[in-house]
Design brief:
Helix content: 55-70%
Largest sheet: 2 strands, antiparallel
Structural class: mainly alpha
Oligomer: single chain
CATH architecture: Orthogonal Bundle
CATH topology: Arc Repressor Mutant, subunit A
CATH superfamily: Winged helix-like DNA-binding domain superfamily/Winged helix DNA-binding domain
Distance between the termini: 17 Å
CATH class: Mainly Alpha
Number of helices: 6
Number of strands: 2
Strand order of the largest sheet: 1-2
Radius of gyration: 18 Å
Order of helices and strands: HHHHEEHH
């Protein structure tokens, strides 16, 4: 296989790494602007979404999924808990060290509102893409992730 990039020809503005990072930053900025009146950030939405979809239920699982260090995750959980959106509970099987996370009733009610706004941002960012192109793009990103 011939390499796609080499040191002689690579330009940051045309590399997949740079472009993915810029797209991620623009997505986060757009979501932050869209959610600002709800006092929720894109990072907080990421935590709530993983809890809502059952993709994580503990601080450790969230740290791994979001690549946060434990201290940053604790501060994130503190903010979400102070807003009444998540709750921390102790393990029901008696392991006092284990903490489980879940959306509160307020968090469950607010999540669809937040999610709808995030979907709006995604759809705006995909302006000019056909549905087939968006699915193809998803497939490219999944393949890129699998190759990592």
């Amino acid at each position: 296989m011939n390499p796609i990039y080499d040191q002689a020809t690579i330009r940051p503005e045309n590399s997949i790494g740079y472009l993915l990072n810029q797209a991620r930053l623009e997505l986060y900025y757009a979501v932050d602007r869209e959610l600002s009146d709800l006092d929720v950030t894109s990072a907080q939405f990421g935590v709530m979404a993983r809890l809502a979809y059952g993709m994580a239920d503990s601080p450790g699982a969230l740290c791994k999924a979001l690549q946060y260090d434990p201290g940053a995750m604790t501060r994130m959980m503190d903010r979400l808990e102070a807003k009444g959106l998540i709750r921390r509970t102790r393990d029901r099987n008696g392991d006092r060290r284990a903490v489980h996370l879940e959306l509160t009733e307020q968090g469950k009610q607010m999540f669809p509102v937040i999610q709808a706004r995030v979907i709006g941002v995604l759809n705006r960012m995909l302006t000019g893409f056909s549905a087939d192109e968006a699915k193809q793009f998803e497939g490219f990103l999944k393949r890129l992730i699998a190759n990592a």
